[in-house]
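ugh ok fine here u go
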Amino acid sequence: MEPHPVRLVVDDDLERSRLTVFFRILLAIPHLIWVALWTVAVAVLAVIAWVGACFTGRLHPSFHGFFCSYIRYTTHLSAYIGLVAAPYPPFIDGRYPVTVNLPAETVAQKRWTVVLRFFLAVPALLLSAGLAGSGGLRVPRGTGSSGTNVSVGGGALSGVAAFLAWFAVVFAGRMPKGLRDAGAYGVGYSAQASAYLLLVTDRYPNSDPTEMLVDVERPPEHPVHLVGDEHDLRRSRVTVLFRILLAIPHLVWLVLWSVAATVAVIVQWFVTLFAGRPARGLHAFLARFVRYAFHVGAFVYLAGNPFPGFTGLSGRYPLDIVLPDPAPQSRWKTGFRFFLTFPAFLLRAAMVSLVLVAAILMWFAALFTGRIPSGLRNVVAYGLRYGAQLDAYLLLLTDAYPNASPLEGAQADREPAPEPIGLAPRLSQA
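structure:
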């Protein structure tokens, strides 16, 4: 498949000014006023442009240029507010280190897709709600705060990432790469959804995080990462239809196992705190619990197809995780482990809504086609991977903090193993 015509460009480093970050929202107020005025104009013109395109099958060039300028400007502003970029954005469509490349000319589009464009865009807007906010041009309906959302903005995963990054930058003067990548993913998907909704392109938004961030440097490989079958997109309609009912035995067993895992991790905490490394037997027990929870999540959220086993053994499920062997861990990280996980829990909570929306959309797609879209599967893989990394960190399987980047980490220089292949979120990239 050809690259998406709406391409995100990230050409900014991770250095940030503590002063401008501290006052970022106040500095953005003039832009927020300006974008509100611009959005009203775009909302009115979008209706006129849509009526014309219904008859001609293409967006008029004057509307095309105006909407492209608006999309680029909102992308710059979203990147600035979300701390994805450092410089103050221009008020008119201009150069910025985080921007989008848009089609230079209007293209012919199928009339039926133009007529039904808003309804066709609903799945993308729902995914945007879990990824980058409520999604939509906010069209005022009066003097109150009510309105109709029909485009894309910031919030949800991107909002939580920006909130956590604000504290990190104020203290360290540098943007964490994982949070920057998560925010950039939301900004890019928002731009694609806006371009589709405003008829700038007839190409549907691509939810694959790795496709969105194809030119962004990948982080180092995390000790907890995904492996599995990158081409397994087929799904049984019958098992998909009854997926939740089929998962009930696993959900009951997971609750019972979690009780034993809670006791085990308390004992493991004392062992690791005093010995400087976890006990091997408890480590193996907790590793199987984390892996089993991942298998159940992959089955419930349709990222995996077969019915999982109840043992949490490695290599027994098409989508699996690699967990590290017992190793020495920092005592101070162990002592404050629960408090250190609080930011990661906030980010994981935001990912839950994203994964849930992607799973619901995959559920409908699988019922109609017997397959799931690879982009949505990779969104779910991203959320499940982060959840497994958080579980492994909390249960003392590793002292490596969860990586919020949607990009799977790059392997260090070594002889690559032919199996299993590295995944997630784009399963085709090792």
